[in-house]
Amino acid sequence: MSRISSRDLLPRVLKGDVAAIARLLSRAEAADPECRETLGEVYARAGKAHVIGITGVPGSGKSTMVSVLARRLRGAGHKVGIIAIDPSSPYSGGSIMGDRIRMSELAGDEGVYIRSMATRGALGGMARATLDSVDILDVAGFDYILIETVGVGQDEVEIASASHTTLVVSAPGLGDEIQAIKAGILEIADIHVVSKSDRPDARSTISDLKQMLALGISLDSSAAWRPPVVATSSMKGEGFEELVSALEKHRAFLRDSEAGRARARKIAEFRMLKTAEDLLRIRFKEHSASRVRATADRLMSREIDPYVAGEQLIEGIGA
Amino acid sequence: MSRISSRDLLPRVLKGDVAAIARLLSRAEAADPECRETLGEVYARAGKAHVIGITGVPGSGKSTMVSVLARRLRGAGHKVGIIAIDPSSPYSGGSIMGDRIRMSELAGDEGVYIRSMATRGALGGMARATLDSVDILDVAGFDYILIETVGVGQDEVEIASASHTTLVVSAPGLGDEIQAIKAGILEIADIHVVSKSDRPDARSTISDLKQMLALGISLDSSAAWRPPVVATSSMKGEGFEELVSALEKHRAFLRDSEAGRARARKIAEFRMLKTAEDLLRIRFKEHSASRVRATADRLMSREIDPYVAGEQLIEGIGA
After folding, report:
1. Which of A47, A54, B145, B225 has its CA 20 to 30 A from that of A211?
2. Does residue A65 lie in a domain region?
């Protein structure tokens, strides 16, 4: 089978052809230079979907919550794309557990598209690849695009923030280290979700969270949006109407508002920087192997320091 | 109090003056341009310490294991520096729990220096800041430098790999999501540590791990180093002699060998790339605000695509 060019894939992607979407996503993830121009066209056409970043500590029940949320949005007639950043390995093939479970639940519905990205060690940065993938699903006609990341790790948290609405998922009964990590991601939330609300200890998790947030609010009373706390039970299917309504409220809050424009600018700046970083990384690996090697050798022997080596890398590439 | 220049701090750092070390570390973390030249000098002098990257999933007992290991190395007469990458927040001040516990255990010993980095959202990348910090502790006379990261997140795992010896810590009795994450980081290990070996379910964790590794070995029988599995109990203080001996073996394996040179080159290349990325990020934030803003606006309005914006960022900076 001859390889179809990305340019020729695009019309099929625009019609929502699943096989074409999958191919273009793979090329975008791999940072294939052949698809770059097409991704530019995709970007020019994108911007209709509402992008929801979802993060939370391991064990918070994110993946299950996301699949229930996707079903609800689907039930309301929306097409839903899910991009799950999978922390597992590209070497070992990865064990994409959450995804497998969801695949079976949501399988056979053309209005739901799930993509798992096991990007560790991949050529091309995760943030750049994720945002390019969001665009592809956007132009393919998905109304809501959910980006799910494990909320530990600088990149992962940044990616969840590079969305229109960011959900941070908490859950009762997690360990100390997990709780400390959780504290670090709360401030990126537009909406807090406490999952597993069917558990008896959920009530205290919710009130602790509200108390913490109340402290924050008193410090910044000028904020126009106060992140609500929504309790959900994926097992019982409870709380999702409230969650969807909170999502709609936040979406309305951003629409044609200064807050919305500020958010869009923040995302554009993040994207510009991440794409530049990625271009640097790609060229580092592809185009100037001997030059990179020579500079690395001088760095190894401590003839030059990392800042000089870094400058040389940027200059050599920018020139 | 007038501000001491980084150049003037250096002689005190070289003597191991704790206050001077702390100051230079803060400047390095903040990517303060004033200290860059001094960091270059630091780099030129560094390279004596053995750097150990330690990672593992949340709940694996890393932090406690690291503090027991530090005491053992200390007991053998070595000076030990610890850099803990803290996933908590710079906004909320962070809850540096593990660190607080350790501080009390290791406090008052001048031969141990602990630095917690809560770098999320900080100016300057985590990897660059960590490796600059390693150099500072190196020239300050620390023999072993332990870098501890939570092994979830692309950056965090990369940082743990950018060391001479990488330990991956596992533990019995973790949840499914955590286990999936764990599977993704096993291949970076030079030494596997199963902590909490006093737990009754530790035996099966150890045998599962050995089985997994045996599968990997059969695929790559040419590997000159086979990562051993060491069981430790921080509570009972067991297994640490074996762990220190495994560390020494790995250190000897790298010494004056092709494997050691390959490792050093890999670290140098990683460092060059991360420093370049960081320079890009710093300049993005500091020097060309109006230009960045104009490009971001054009990106927002979809006049240009992210690749064009990224190229402009690199070119504008490299020129």
Report:
1. A54
2. yes
Tell whether B41 is covered by a domain.
Answer: no
User: Long-range pairs for B298-302 at CB < 8 Å and ≥24 separation?
Assistant: B299/A268, B299/A271, B299/A272, B300/A264, B300/A265, B300/A268, B302/A43, B302/A44, B302/A46, B302/A47
Residues A153/B152, Cβ–Cβ less than 8 Å? yes
Query: In sequence order, what DSSP letters do the residues of B151-172 get, joined into one string?
Result: S-SHHHHHHHHSSSEEEEEE-S
Instruction: Give a yes or no: residue A271 inside a domain.
Output: no
Q: Do B56 and B160 belong to one domain?
A: yes
Which pair of tokens denotes residue B205?
């964790």
Which pLDDT does position A277 carry in this prediction?
87
Nearest to A87 by CA among A109, A58, A120: A120
**Count of CB pairs separated by less than 8 Å, A with B:** 265
State the residue range of the domain holding B298. 288-318
Give Cα separations from A138 to A15, A16, A40, A72, A149 (angstroms): 11, 10, 13, 19, 19
Q: B195: helix, coil or strand? A: coil
Which distant-in-sequence residues (6+ apart) come within 8 Å of A182 by Cβ? A56, A57, A60, A151, A170, A174
Same domain? B303 vs B195: no
Q: Please indicate, yes or no, whether residues B235 and B293 belong to a single structural domain of this protein.
A: no
Interchain contact, A281 vs B273, CB within 8 Å = yes
Cβ-Cβ contacts under 8 Å, A269 against chain B: 292, 296
Q: Does B310 touch chain A (CB under 8 A)?
A: yes
Same domain, B204 and B297: no
Each residue's pLDDT tens digit, B108-130: 788 999 888 875 555 558 889 99
Whether the Cβ atoms of residue B75 and residue B104 lie closer than 8 Å to each other: no
Beta strands, E only, A186-275: 191-194, 229-231
Q: Do A92 and B180 touch (CB under 8 A)?
A: no
Q: Are residues A268 and B297, on separate chains, in Cβ contact within 8 Å? A: yes
Sequence length of chain B is 319
Considering the domain architecture, whether residues A146 and A293 belong to the same structural domain is answered as no
Q: Which of A152, A280, A296 sits opposite B280 (nearest CB)?
A: A280
Rounded to whole angstroms, what are the CA distances from A277 to A87, A281, A310, B307?
21, 6, 12, 11
For residue B128, the domain's CATH number is 3.40.50.300
Residues A199 and A241 in one domain: yes
Of B256, B279, B302, the last residue of a domain is B256
Reading the block at residue A314, the tokens are 């940027």
Q: pLDDT digit string (tens) for B41-88? A: 999 999 999 999 999 887 788 888 999 999 999 999 999 999 998 765
A227 and A310 co-located in one domain: no
Please tell me what DSSP assigns to residue A167.
E
- Report which of B3, B150, B245 is spatially closest to residue A154, judged by C-alpha positions: B150
Full-model pTM: 0.81
- Nearest chain A Cα to B266, which residue? A296
User: Within an 8 Å CB–CB cutoff, is residue A305 touching chain B?
Assistant: yes
- Range in A210-219, B138-147, B160-169, B271-280 with the lowest mean pLDDT: A210-219
> Is residue A241 located within the same domain as residue A302?
no
CB A149 within 8 A of CB A54: yes
**In the predicted structure, residue B279 carries a pLDDT above the cut 60:** yes
Q: Which of B256, B272, B301 is a domain's end point?
A: B256
The number of folded domains in chain B is 2
